[in-house]
């Protein structure tokens, strides 16, 4: 689940914090990186568990309604949503239950939030259309939860506040983690029953090494990378740059030089997107141009052996 997009985001955040908080211990900083990445995986499981918590609360409500209907001789309530096939399969999932038991994750202390979310679900169009539809299929059951998640959980201010109280990391992680939850819902297959695989914490050991190596290279070679920035643009005034821009370019140079199999264009595009997210409105365009010039400088001086496309003639005077 922890992919390179999330790793890059964490390294931008933690490199900036590394220089701001005054604690310059590299081993401690690396432990903080790996811990913050593990917290993102906790959040992934916690949000999957929210689906289970909602299903259990809805089941409790239906049981109360059934008892009332039996006493009063009225029509019994539908059990379609509370025994939603996808949600039941998730509730029985071995990987989720093992992780939850080991990490002691629970929604019990936040039952009021769960109940409020249940109310919002019951009032939603997706829920009402699902309950009115005579179709009884696994695909329909899975799809209603995908809609509910996208419409009521992805952008939920109450949930954001709750997550902020539980972890310093989780609000920053949620947007990316939401995409993994939605991907997980989509890939559930009824044939797998309780053995359906969730996303692993890391796809492979290579991604974990990517995180460690990129962070260490960024910090340990900071002076060298900043000199490359200077040599690429002689008239560059560091004092006029947003500090986050310097941090982002420093990490991008580290990636260019440390990972020969990652194309330069991929690295530049990733950090331009991060600049748009974390720095000033003009930072994306500026960093795009600077990183292109830095990459060409590194190739020209023999410091990097990666192919670069020819630059259009009108831009030659920028080198």
Give a topology summary.
Elements: H1 4-21, H2 26-72, H3 85-91, H4 94-103, H5 111-123, H6 125-132, H7 138-153, H8 157-166, H9 170-187, H10 205-220, H11 222-232, H12 243-258, H13 264-278, H14 283-300
Total strands: 0
Helix content: 55-70%
Q: In this structure, how is the largest beta sheet organized?
A: none
* Low-confidence parts: 315-319
Tell me the fraction of residues in β-strands, as a range: under 5%
End-to-end CA span:
39 Å
| Shape, principal axes of CA atoms | elongated
What is the overall pLDDT average? 92
Order of helices and strands: HHHHHHHHHHHHHH
Judged by helices, strands and strand pairing, the structural class is mainly alpha
